[in-house]
Amino acid sequence: MTILAYRRDIDGLRAVAVLAVVLFHFGVPGVTGGFVGVDVFFVISGFLITSIIWRERQAGRFSFVGFWARRARRILPALFVMMAATLAVGWFLLAPKDYEELGRSAHYQVTFTSNLLFARQHGYFDASSDIKPLLHTWSLAVEEQFYIFFPLLLALLSSRLKHWRLALFAVLLVSFGMSVWAVSHQPQKAFYLLHLRAWELLAGAMLAVMPKVEWRASPPLAQAVSLASLALILTAIFGFDRHTPFPGAAALLPVLGVVGLIWANGQQATWVGQLLSSRLMVGLGLISYSWYLWHWPVFVYANYAAVDGLSAAELGGLMLLSLVLGYLSWRFVEAPFREKRLLAGRKAILAGAAAGILCLGLTGLALREADGVPWRLSEQALRYAQAKKWSPELTACLADKNTADKRSFCHFGPQGLSVSALVWGDSHATALIPALEDAANRHDISLVQASFAGCVPLDGLENITPCAHFNQRVEKALAEQSFSDVVLAARWSLYLYGQMSGDKEHALKDLGTGKYVRAVAEQRFEQGLRERIQGLRAAGHRVWLVKEVPLQEIIVPYRLSRLAMMHRPVDGEGLPVAEHEKRQAFITRLFDELAAADSGVTVLDPAPLLCGADGLCRVELDGRALYTDDNHLSDVGARHVQAFLEPLFRSLQSRGLTAN
After folding, report:
1. 337 sits in which H/E element
2. Please, what is the angle between helix 164-185 and helix 194-209, to 10°?
3. Do the Cβ atoms of 426 and 455 come closer than 8 Å?
4. How far is CA 76 from the centre of its chain?
């Protein structure tokens, strides 16, 4: 193997990279762009690895198998130890859904494809990414994918083309151009995928294969370039944030900064080079890989266990803990394997790598197949966690974009010739089925339930074509059958204001611009509801408007099960009543106006049965979750609020509208 002249400054540059990433992830104020530390690693890796490949090729000693064996020795032992420990801790800490996802991540990562998995899920900066203990392995996946293909590409170009460096530079430019385009059009893919990140590794690679020249930069020029390059990196670390379109053109700052520093410090001794070569920086650089591996699982698991976040002092202590773990990993795992004190032979390391891949991969697959091994949980935690599952009876009554023209409506109560009432809405109408079915049987009333996921039961406001077709089917049923009453139930605020998180995907848009404007959404909704009620009343139907249940800011079964696993109380969980009333203010006013203007329109509200004198809209009752997620009632929740439907059933019963 060709030995490169050791450069302390590059180890110091690794320290800059890992410090940026760790400080960013632990939320240290000011380090808002620390995620660019990964880009610094990419360029360093491209330079060092390509330098080795190229010198070995020039000496006629390069071997693909030998190269990949060295990569396995360098990367896999510390990675596999961290993954095994992460899976072990997850057994005791993670809720089933999260443990299943951890298994999925491990299964992908052992084949270095976790970046492909994460690219299909939430964005890197989304809050949901903070509960993925192996999220940081995406960068390792990108690097290893690169080093599977790059040696082959380098060998092909350098052996077939006279101007192969220009061809390699052209590949770099194409990758960069695609990255710039993808940042605007496919930002998640731009962040995670190899072909959109390859230009950063190629930037370091190009520096490594540049032809040797006699000319050397003067000390003043080297000083100027090194200072300017450090300024580029620091500008990105302290100037970028999670809202910066990245990587794309913005990644030029750290990439060019690293290229400039490596070049300048290779030309002359510089002030920046001396700083990077200091004992502290070199020491941090030596353990940077292991520290990078351990810092993220430590942060994720600590945050997970804390449930409500961590103090600055706790974050500082955890950062120190991750540094200690990183040092121990370097001292007892990384260095012994790298120095061939363990599994010294090529066959031994490759066999060990295969065994680790097989063991961790099968473990990850088993966790997926076992749905996160829910029997690990205590009886109470498991009871909460299981509330997220809808019963087959409910899902059978909910149409969606794949079933709208096929699925029949559901019928509850006595099966007679006379049908008294139709319940029409979206999945919130479906969630009421346990209460509707119980009441229908108890009062001897016949009901038909028609619901479509994410579909507002109002004309002209449907977001997708199958939804409009479904509403037409309901209108046809109303015309053909003898329904006396129609119950409209939906997550009304979704169509007015979007998700609680701020996502406006399902909210009504301005027809002219296609953009969301609150006043326009409210105007369109009011008009659509008035027209729907006018049509129903003209056809002789009584109308019942069901207000939505309080929307929560947490995924209820998930939150409650986590609290139970941590042996934490669940008291105090729930949305403040004031916030519920604020979000529902327009809907409340409109519903009340419609009911006041027509005695044939009545408003039903489940919220008083969920919101108490303590000022909270509760999510739990007697050890049971009242919601399946953050907005749908569970079976227990639906039955808990059943009394709010009594006016409907008493009205039907008093008018003698029973099934024959």
Report:
1. helix 335-338
2. 150
3. yes
4. 26
Q: Are residues 395 and 303 in the same domain?
A: no
| pLDDT block averages, 10 residues each, the chain of length 660 | 73 97 96 97 96 91 91 95 97 90 95 93 72 95 95 92 95 97 94 96 96 86 96 97 94 97 94 96 97 97 85 95 98 93 89 95 96 90 88 89 78 73 95 94 90 92 86 92 93 92 84 90 95 95 96 91 88 92 96 95 96 92 93 95 94 66
Q: Please count the structural domains in the chain.
A: 2
Residues linked to residue 485 through DSSP beta bridges, in sequence order? 421, 542
Give the integer Cα–Cα distance in Å for 350 and 297. Answer: 27
The tokens of 203 are what?
């930037």
Tokens at 8, concatenated: 């302390």
Q: Quote the CA–CA distance of 607 and 550 in Å, as a whole number.
A: 6
3-state SS string over 52-79? HHHHHHHCCCCCHHHHHHHHHHHHHHHH
Query: 629 — phi, psi (to 5°)?
Result: -150, -130
Q: Which residues contact 321 (CB under 8 A, 6 or more apart)?
A: 298
Task: Tell me the backbone φ, ψ of residue 575, rounded to 5 degrees.
Answer: -80, 135
Q: SS3 of 128, please?
A: helix
CA distances from 476 to 404, 412, 445, 481, 483 (A): 14, 20, 22, 9, 12
Q: Which amino acid is at 161?
A: L
593 and 457 in a single domain? The answer is yes
Position of tokens 């990255």? 179
- Output the 3-class SS for 404-465: CCCCCCEEECCCCCCCCEEEEECHHHHHCHHHHHHHHHHHCCCEEEEEECCCCCCCCCCCCH
Distance CA(494)–CA(503), nearest Å, equals 9
Tokens 């292991």 belong to residue? 290
**Rounded to an integer, what distance in angstroms lies between the CA atom of residue 245 and that of residue 232?**
17
Contact between 326 and 585 under an 8 Å Cβ cutoff? The reply is no
Q: How far apart are CA 641 and CA 432, in angstroms?
A: 9
Q: Can you give the pTM of this predicted structure?
A: 0.81
Q: Which residue has the tokens 């105007």?
A: 523
Asked if residue 290 and residue 163 are part of one domain, the reply reads: yes
Domain end marker among 344, 369, 401:
344
Question: What are the structure tokens assigned to 618, written together?
Answer: 């509760």
Strands 447-452 and 421-425: parallel
The sign of the dihedral angle between the CA atoms of 435, 441, 444, 448 is positive
CATH number at residue 521: 3.40.50.1110
